[in-house]
From TrEMBL:
Annotated Gene Ontology cellular component terms: membrane
Name of protein: Peptidoglycan/LPS O-acetylase OafA/YrhL, contains acyltransferase and SGNH-hydrolase domains
Positions with biased composition (Basic and acidic residues): 18-34
Transmembrane segments: 64-85, 106-127, 182-200, 207-228, 234-254, 266-283, 289-307, 327-350, 356-373, 394-416
Every Acyltransferase domain range: 42-373
Lineage: superkingdom: Bacteria
Region of interest (Disordered), ranges: 1-34
Ranges for domain SGNH: 485-701
Sections of the chain in a coiled coil: none
Amino acid sequence: MPSADHDLGPQNLSEPARPVRREPRDRSPEHAEPSRFIPHVQGLRAIAVLAVVLYHFWPARFSGGYVGVDVFFVISGFLITAHLMREVTATGTVSLGQFWARRARRLLPASLLVLLFCALVAMSPYLTPTSALPNEIREIVASTFYVENWYLALNSADYLNHSGDPTTVQHYWSLSLEEQFYLMWPLIMLLAAWIGVKYFRGSRRRAIILALGVVSAASFVFCVIFTMTDPAPAYFVTFGRMWQFGVGAMVALIPALRIRHAVGSLLLGWGGILILLFVIFTFDAQTSFPGYAAALPTLGAAAIIAASNTQRWWYPTRILAIRPAQFVGNISYSLYLWHWPLIIIAPSVPFWGLTIYHRVALLGICFVLAWLTKRFVEDPARGWKVLTSRPARVTLWSSLAAMLVVAGTAGAAWAVNATAYNDGVKAIAALREDPPECFGAAFVLDAGCGSAEWGDTILPAPGFAGADRPLDAQCFVQLNDARPVSCEFGSEDGDAPVVALIGDSHAYQLLPTFQAMADANGWQLITYFKGACPWNTTPLSTPGAFGAACTQWRDGVRAQLAERDIDAVFTSAIATTPYDSAGYDSVQDAAVAGYREAWGEVLDRGIPVITVVDNPVWETDPNKCLRTRDLTECDGQRTDLLVEDDPLRAAATGLDGVTLLDFTEVFCGQKTCSPVVGGANLYRDQDHLTVTFVDTLAPRYTAAIQAALDAR
C-alpha cells in the first residue's frame, strides 16, 4: 500500500543527533535528526504503484504486478523506522499520540473520501449488483476501520484467484495491514528502547535492531509455513507480512546496508530493478505467495533503497529521480486508492465497453482523480491548522468521527436496498421451486417449446444472479489445500445407488441440482471438488505448490474411490485448464490421455462415467452488460467463448462405458452465444452457471445417470 509519507526520508541515519530543543509534551519532533527527501525512494513508489495498477488493468500481461504491494511494505518499513529512530535518539521516546495523529492526517482524508464514494455507489443498483450488496457493505465497514485484511483472511478470500466479482474496496486489505503496522511498530521500538536503557548499557539502537530483527525473522518463518499450510489467509494476515517492513527497517537502522560506493551502488540498484521486473512479468496467480517467493520483490526493493550513490546520471538513484517518476510517486497513494473501485464499477456504466481504448481512457481518469485528490485533499489535510495547532487527541477523535460517517453511509446503502435484496433471495427460491414451462434449457431442448416467447425476461435478475450459487463451501477445497474432502448427500439407505460427482469448480456448480436429483431418485451422492483441478492424471503446467496440491488431491481421491462401492461417476471441468504437455505431442493430447487414465481406473471396475462438454467462458461477467444494455447487445462470438476442442469431448468419444453430454446448442447458435436462454440467466459470473439454469438441465442429467445405472 503506498503510504503518503513523502517527507520522512533520512539523509544519514548514522550521524549523531544534533542537540534539539525539547518540544512540548504533546508535540513530536519530526526532524530530530538531519533528514532530507530521497528522490529515488519516491521513484521506487512509482514502480510499485504502476506494477499494481497495470496488473489490475491487464493481469495477463503484468501477471506478477501484485508484488508492488510488497515493495510498498518495504518502503514504509524503511521510512517509518527511520523517522521513529530519529525521535527516539533525540528524545529517548516517541510521542505516540502525535505519531498516530500525523498518520491519520496524512492517510485518512483520501482513504475515507474513496470509501465514501464506494458507499454511495453501493446505494445504486445500476452500479452495484444487489446480490453483492451485503459483502460490499461489510467490506466497506471493515476497510473504514482498517481490518479489511482480517475480514478477507477469516473468510479465506483468494486475492489472486478471486472467483466472481470482488468488492470495490478489496484492495484496502493492504492499507489495513499497514495501519496495523503503524500501530504496533512504535510500541515494539519503545519497548526495545526501554530494554536497551535498562539492560544494554543505554544502547537503544542496538536493542531496537535486535528486537526488530527477531520479530522479522519470526514473521518470515510464520509466513513461509502458513503459506504452505493455508495460503488464502496467509496472503492477508498481519504477522505474516511484518518481516517485509522489517527488511526496510534494517536498511534504515544499519548504516553498513546503505551502499555509497559507486560500483556497489550501481550494481545493487540496477540488480534490484531487474529483480522487480523479473517478478512482475513471471510471477502469476499460481505462484505460492507470499511464502519464500515474496523474498524476491522484498529484497529487490531493499536493494534499490540501499543504493545511495547519485554521482552519475545512469545510476538508478538518478533515473528514479526524473520528473515523471517523481510525479507518479507523488500521487501513488491516491492512485492506488482510486484505480480499483473504478475498474470494478466501469463495466456497469452504460455505454462503457471493455476495449483497449476504454481501458486506456479509464487509466487516464485514474491519474486525473489521483492528482486532484493529492492536490485538494491530501496536501491541505496535512497542514490543516484546526488540527495541527491542537493536541493530538483532536485529530484522533475527528478521525473517528469521520470513520463513523463513512460507516453510517455504508449502513444507509444497505437500508436503501435491503428490501430489494430480501425480495431477490425469495424470488430465486420461488423460481427454483416452481420454474415456468419452457424455461431455460427446456426452451431449446424440448420439442414442444418451439412457440414459447420470453421477450426481455431475465431470471434471476442480472443484479441478483451472483447470489444464485452453491452454498456447501465446506465441500470445495482450493489453492494449496490437497485434502480429498468428501461430502455425502441424498439417501441413507445402504442399498441406494451411489453416484460420485467429481471435478473442479465447473463440477461444483452442479452440486445443488445433483442434491435435488439424489433426493428425488433415491440415490446417495458423494462429492470431491477442488478448484482449478479436474479429475485427470496429467499434471498441471502450473509450477510450485498449487500444481503439487492438485496432484496430491487426485491421489487422495483415487485412493478413496478404490475403497468405496460406487455405481456411477459424473465429472465436469473447465476446458481451459493448463496441462503439462511433457511426453505428449500437445497439451490437448496430454489432457485427453489424463482423462482416459483417470476414468480407466473406475471403468475397469465396471463403473460407468458420465461427463459433459464445458460451457462457454466469458471475458467478464455478462451480468454487467445485462444490467445496463439491451439483451441483444450482450451476445458474444462463439469463437471467442467456446473451446471447440474441449479435451473432455475428445476423451469421451469412442470410449466404452463413458456417456458424453453436449449442451453447446443450448448456449450458442452458429455464430454467437447468449447469456440468457429461455428467460433464464445462465451465468453468475464470467464462467460459472447459475443454479437456476443448471436445474433446467436436470432432466438430461438424470436420464444419463439413470441409463448408466440401468446398464450395469
